[in-house]
Structure formats: C-alpha cells, structure tokens
Amino acid sequence: MDAFKQQLEQLSAKNQYRSIPDLVHQGRYITRENRKMLNMSSNDYLGLASNENLRQSFLQQYGGNFPSFTSSSSRLLTGNFPIYTDLEELVAQRFQRESALLFNSGYHANIGILPALTTTKSLILADKLVHASMIDGIRLSQCEFFRYRHNDYEHLKNLLEKNVGKFDRTFIVTESVFSMDGDVADLKQLVQLKNNFPILIFMWMRPMQ
Hints:
Residues 36-199 form the Aminotransferase class I/classII large domain. 38% of the residues lie in helices and 15% in strands. The protein has seven helices and seven strands. The strands form two sheets. A four-stranded parallel beta sheet has the order 5-4-6-7, sandwiched between helices. A three-stranded antiparallel beta sheet has the order 1-2-3, with no helix packed on it.
C-alpha cells in the first residue's frame, strides 16, 4: 500500500493527480466552488440535453409512439426497434450511401469497426495524432500497425511502398478534423494514395464550420 501512496504523492507533485470534481449542473452552466461558469468543456455546451422545454416538447410530440428509453438488450437479440432502421435509412439517404449503421458513440464505433474489418494478417497505418479511442480500436484488432508522422503524407507513402504487399488488407486510419489540435487532414492527398495503392481509409469525420 505504501507503494501506491508514494505513486499518488508523485502524481500530486507533478500536478498530474486527478480527482472527481463536485459540480452542480444548471443547463449550460456549472457551479464549482461557488463559481458559476459556462460549461465549454462538455459535448453539451449549448445545454440542449438539459433543456426542460425541449424535453417536454419531445415527450408531448413523440411520447406515445416512442420506444422505451432503454433497449434492454442488444440489437442482435431483442433490442432492435423500427425507429432505429428508419433513422439509419434516413442517414444513408442524406449521405447518398447504400446503407448506414449507427453506434452509441464515436468511441463504440472506433473500437468496433476496426476489429471487425481487420484480421491478424492486416496492416493499419495511423496518423500520429488520431484520437485515443482509435488507438484502442487498433489494439483490439490485434494486427500489425505503424504510426506515420502527423499529416505527413510522404512518410505515409513510404510506409505504403514498403509494406502494402505484405498484408491481406491495409487501412489508413485518420481524422477529418483532429481533436488534438484542430488540424485538418488533406483529403485530396489521401484519395490520391487510395487510387495508387490497394488500401482502405478509415476516417473519423467531424463537421467543419
């Protein structure tokens, strides 16, 4: 136990010790230590999820026809509802694609898709600054992977030239807008590489303003 205590003290000395804050949530605001602040560190920075008027309006409009607030089961078992299929068909139509598959979150997509598409004989080439959840998905895939320098497509091209013929499938893993620093991927260069090599691109898409 002394070793754990020492580790915690070392983290504290480096300002790396983390603790769960005591917060009071009020719409888009939070109160911490008697200070009321606009919560810009949340995905719900507009406060829409906690807007009581929106919630009541939603229940009045859809409450009678809306399924349970819990699926109670996996979609593969008994947790599928027609509204899920309707939404996936709408998304596919809007993006002009054959079909769409919804996940609970970006994290679930990133840890689910790559292990499903790769084999132990596959190769993943990932941008150095991809999101941590993508790295989790890469590790779960249990295939060979290398990381190329951030947005360095010459480095990526060199890795492709050296490795692409050695594996059954090769994936480039990247983001459209990088969450780490806000950089934007060069889609034209990625498409050019896709046209020149037998590869697949797995990209986490984020809307750009």
